[in-house]
Amino acid sequence: MKSILWIKSLVMCCMALLVSTSTQAQDKSMLWSRQVNGQLWLDTDGNHINAHGGNIIRYGKTYYWYGENRPYSGGSTEAGISVYSSQDLMTWKNEGVALATSTEAGHDIQRGCIMERPKVIYNKKTRKFVMLFHLELKGRGYEAARVAFAVSDSPTGPFRFIRSQRIHANQWPFDMDEAAIRAAQQTDASQWKEWWTDAWRREVEKGMYLWRDMKEGQMSRDMTVYVDDDGKAYHITSSQENLTLLVSELTDDYLDFTGKYNMVAPGGQNEAPCILKHKGTYWLICSGCTGWSPNEARMFSAKSIWGPWQQHPSPFVGVAQGNHEMPANKTFGAQGTYIYKMNGKPVFMADIWNPRHLSQSLHLWLPIEFDAQGTPVIRWKDHWTH
Ligand code: DGJ
How would residue 386 be classed by pLDDT, with cut points 50, 70 and 90? Predict the structure, then answer.
């Protein structure tokens, strides 16, 4: 009798243990289910995270996620740039608007402008948080093609708008010699009504749009910012009618350009640049230019930020599964925004755009793996742990 009672209590103990372990497992999976790729990602208030085209930084023990605050309808910016905070990269608290649009008529960031692809970096020397973003002026569609600067003492803002500008007016890329400059000066963009012919492409490669915009300054649309191991920061942007990428060095305070820049893949039509440095090699992952529709990613590598850049096939392999079926040759339906290193391991952050309701665009984070040759590979995962 005694032994039956003992077995009974042992069984009950085991059952209690099992229940508690499975509750813990359930808690953990509930936590992760907040970030299932291809589904809405809710913040601590239960709202979908409205931070698109942005980036993440870590300051102290807290992570900050910046991004475009998009309205439910319409393509222009009403509120500004959002910021969320997290201790674990899974649970995100809405910290409000880090950089607000202006109510002043004619202001560069007047409500109704378009603010895209904000990137915040921390400057250790000045102890300031610096934000760069793509700005389009109110009512002018995408023709202004400017980069804008804002600064803050605190990661959650408020950021103070500094200025917006075209870039490198009257400056040639540092690696263009006199013969290349003369060749560019002989091009004439106004003569080319028909694009995409071989002859037109040759002129683009010579720097036809670089020359066209020499006085006004170069266009800057989709962009990212990269801080290298030595603390130097670089701006990488889609320029020349989105045909050519420019890599530009920023000043030590990150608030201006030094004037040193060069072109990457002239005529290659790359946008949404994301950059990663792994074992001494820089990897640039971009998209093609098809508006809000997904396309096949492109990848380049170089031993120096100044190139030369070598093109590789897209790093995306396989098919997105579950409720979001999209092939690798459509970047799983997404477009990159940033590569963030979580505990040293790179994560590709992207947006699955919903152009009818931009605020509802989904987030996609996937770990970047490396094959035996050290080349990045990105596979679909519904969710994953680090
Ligand atoms: C693609 C860009 O990557 C986005 O940031 C946005 O500018 C859309 N084009 C607008 O069509």
Answer: low
pLDDT at 20 over 60: no
Measure 386 CA to ligand 1 centroid, in angstroms.
30
Pocket test for ligand 1, best of 147, 223, 237, 335 (most atoms within 8 A of CB): 335
- Across the range 323-333, mean pLDDT stands at 89
How far does Cα 192 stand from its chain's mean position? Answer: 32
Instruction: Please name which of 116, 50, 53, 108 lies closest in space to residue 84, comparing C-alpha atoms.
Output: 50
Residues with CB under 6 A from ligand 1: 53, 116-117, 222, 271-272, 291-292, 335
Distance from Cα 286 to the centre of ligand 1, integer Å: 12
What's the pTM? 0.91
Q: Do 100 and 79 contact (CB within 8 A), yes or no?
A: yes
Residue nearest to atom 1 of ligand 1 (CA): 291
